Amino acid sequence: MRKTRNSNIELLRIISMLFITLHHFSLWAQGGRSDYLIAHNHLWSAFWSLFYLPLGDIGVYIFVMISGFYLGIKNISIKQSVKKTLKVYAEVYFYSILFLILALNWQSPVKTNKLWQSVMPITFNQYWFVSGYVVLMLLVPFINQAVNKLTKRQFAYLLTVLVVICGIFPLINNTIASQTVGLGILITAYLFGTFIAKFIHRNNWNYLIGLSLFVVNTIIIYIIMYYQIILTKDRFTNIYTGIFALLSAWGLFLIFINLKPVFHVIFNQVARHMFAVYLITQNIFVLKQLWSNFHFKQIHDLTKLNLYGLGTVLLIMLGCYLIDIVRSAIFKLISLIAKKSENP
């Protein structure tokens, strides 16, 4: 019988991308509003206008944990690692070149730095997350071998060390091991997913632990974020990254992994295209133009604003999903043609 992925985890992948895109709604579509509110000392309103901001890092960590959950317990060869990396790179390159071509037709001239970022998106770090994720995938064979024989206690010790140096140190501006959004924290999230796959079994106790971790750490994030806005008069707070977001993500992962395994073809189908949501919405030629359409300046009720934002993000994700279906069909066609040319 063909093994199918647990749809609970695939639904969590969709939720992780929803969190990331909601974060970008607050950051890019509502950044100007929050700056205005802060400048006029309407700090509570500024906080609500940035309501989705902390969700981004939780979403990123969940997305990487899922990779660790699926890949961390496998014996991945260097060849398999390179193949997976090239598959990711092909998708990145497709959208990078697609939007470069559209930009060359719609706006002229294209700035040199954007040209290089489009032609070599990983080398010139067009997407920080993609660059980090590609490096992580190349390291996976060695990471997996390094942790394969660890006992649960040894693994827990490793995670504790990584949480301190990659999850706490960056919050006090110590970036010796990682920035708040850097390779170190992605490796840490990957190993959290691996730890769950190796040692966590489905039971009510683990579900309650996950619920507590998610609720408590998310509340802490929002409380500290609010007081940082008050103290710094700045929307670019960093407390929602690091250990609190990591533990919140781990808690949410524990909740979903302890649900009864199910299979829903729709969830699994949609989840396969979620990476494209990030690649499209964060493309250097799309980002500002996209979010400039969703400032919602005419809306002053911030609760309504955030509801509009949620609806907007869901529609954007649907649009990206449909676009990526076309991209996937093109890749399958190219693969089919290549196979036929090899075997005439």
From TrEMBL:
GO terms of molecular function: acyltransferase activity
Membrane-spanning ranges: 12-31, 51-73, 85-106, 126-143, 155-172, 178-200, 207-227, 239-258, 270-287, 307-330
Record key words, sorted: Acyltransferase, Membrane, Transferase, Transmembrane, Transmembrane helix
Keyword GTP-binding: no
Cell membrane listed as a keyword: no
Limits of the Acyltransferase domain: 7-323
Short name of one Pfam family: Acyl_transf_3
Protein name: Acyltransferase family protein
